[in-house]
Amino acid sequence: MAAHRKPPQRPLTGHTVRTAATLALAGAAAATCFDGTGHAAPQPTPSQVKARVAALYRDAEAATEKYDGAKEEADAAQRRLSALQDETARRQQRLNTVRNALGSIAAAQYRDGAIAPAWQLALSSDPDRYLDGAALAERAGDRQAAAVSQVRRQLREIERLRGAARVEVKSLRSRQAELRRHKKTVTGKLDEARRLLARLSPRQRDAITGAPEERVSRSAADPREPLERAGSVPAPSGRAAMAVAYAYGKLGSPYVWGATGPNAFDCSGLVQAAYRAAGLSLPRTSYAQIDAGRRISRSELRPGDLVFFYPGISHVGIYVGGGRMIHAPNPSAPVRLDPIGQMPFAGATRVA
Predict the structure, then answer these.
(1) pLDDT tens-digit profile of 180-189?
(2) Catalytic residues, which ones?
(3) Distance separating alpha carbons of residues 16 and 326, to the nearest angstrom
(4) Helix, strand, or coil here: 273?
């Protein structure tokens, strides 16, 4: 048998040494990752938290406005469906009345042993009187048949409309469910942002959320913000004055998704409630409210005008003069006064 010998050992070259070192380091890094002893991700800075929270608020508000619009449409469809159901019930009752009358006639004819009109004419002792009565009965029968036919046609039409309304409601409810899911996702992100805010100092949090008084004073001191000079803006009157007064009365009210008052609001809900109190009906959403009146420029603003922000018209407030508005900002802040220059201005509308 041949003797077994170990193969000769080759000396490690520089390339081999470098390769081995690289593999060792990679293995050590992998081991560190697997055993959980790696370095934690750096905490976001206050400025990063501020940017993330602002983006989340914008996403959430845009989704909420769409949700509000879908809910309004669904509610309208439900009202239409209820009206159709009521009308169907009324027409069904009238049809039942006609059917009962026809049933009574048929029963009477059966009891009387009614025979064919030709035989009745032949056997009648008074043909003229019979012909008069037969013509009257025929006309009455024609009217009853026409009434039944008309009601049946109406019921078929109502069934068609009711089916269409059911399809519409189903579609809108599906859209609402989708928006609710989106809203839930955004709310989860906002919860994450709030947890990040909770780790900051009170001063850092105030710098991010911004106390309204501080924001107003900063805006007033900023020469880039075109504030009106005292006395140059006419005081609101009529409905505009009533809407502004309502908005002032709601300062401090909480922001709640989809709320239209009287104790909580979202941004378009506050605007709608303020003008509802002034006797004017406005659409539910910010992107519809911008078309509810006459478009005006920023330089034309006067108290009571509606001011809109962001390209998607996802935020709205009520201008109160002095470069400020009252609005429902977001879940971290109640209804408050803020300068209109703090967000990208998208347009303004005068509704009263």
Answers:
(1) 776 786 677 7
(2) 267, 315, 327
(3) 72
(4) helix
Model pTM score:
0.65
| Amino acid, res. 236 | P
Element (H, E) at 69: helix 46-112
How long a stretch of residues is the chain? 352
Full set of structural domains in the chain with CATH: 46-198 (1.10.287.620), 213-350 (3.90.1720.10)
User: Which strands make up the sheet holding 306-309, listed edge to edge?
Assistant: 294-296, 345-350, 306-309, 315-321, 324-327, 336-339
Q: What is the pLDDT of residues 213-270, one digit of tens each?
A: 444 433 333 333 343 433 455 667 799 999 999 999 999 999 998 899 999 999 999 9
DSSP string for 70-134: HHHHHHHHHHHHHHHHHHHHHHHHHHHHHHHHHHHHHHHHHHHT---HHHHHHH-S-HHHHHHHH
Crossing angle for the helix pair 202-209 and 127-198, nearest 10 degrees? 140
